[in-house]
Sequence to fold (229 residues):
Amino acid sequence: SAVISQKPSRDICQRGTSLTIQCQVDSQVTMMFWYRQQPGQSLTLIATANQGSEATYESGFVIDKFPISRPNLTFSTLTVSNMSPEDSSIYLCSVDGGSYYNEQFFGPGTRLTVL
Amino acid sequence: AQSVTQLGSHVSVSEGALVLLRCNYSSSVPPYLFWYVQYPNQGLQLLLKYTSAATLVKGINGFEAEFKKSETSFHLTKPSAHMSDAAEYFCAVSSGGGADGLTFGKGTHLIIQP
Fold:
């Protein structure tokens, strides 16, 4: 399985500011995914990032709020823009495991607190 | 559309007892099913996956799950609980094809009593 790292591991931010989260994979992958895990909740898919094309966002998530970059096959960033306390969550990136079945491997997550 | 229901947000068992975590799914296409575990302050680790090759799937750490199409279930079991099994467990479903994200259940917090 791929080894995935995320930066930062955690951050405390002021409302109205933006934070960019980085996701680095140790091998080339086609698909990368960004999820949000709100406190005590399950994971919700934010968007799918395919290298060389615009990210595909799930219902309820928009590019202006969560812009995503995917410059190459091993790296992606998610920006949380104009943050409010409701954005306090764990943000996780994952990668496609390379099989038809969509198994995914997850990074350690970024714990964001917005004051 | 797909969905996953995990019955019981919290499950408590004694150390050495059977662990049973329930997962039911809804899918309009043949599903691929997964169990993930999340330890405190960590990401998700894949425990096991169902890919239609066999209905009884064995995973890591002594866990296994059985796919029952008639019951649309994929319950996770372990014969003997260990203190280190205390964690959050998530059931997830995909439709395959490689391009879609996973749909997760709400999770079950497993508590192990000494």
Chain A touches chain B through 29 residues (CB under 8 Å).
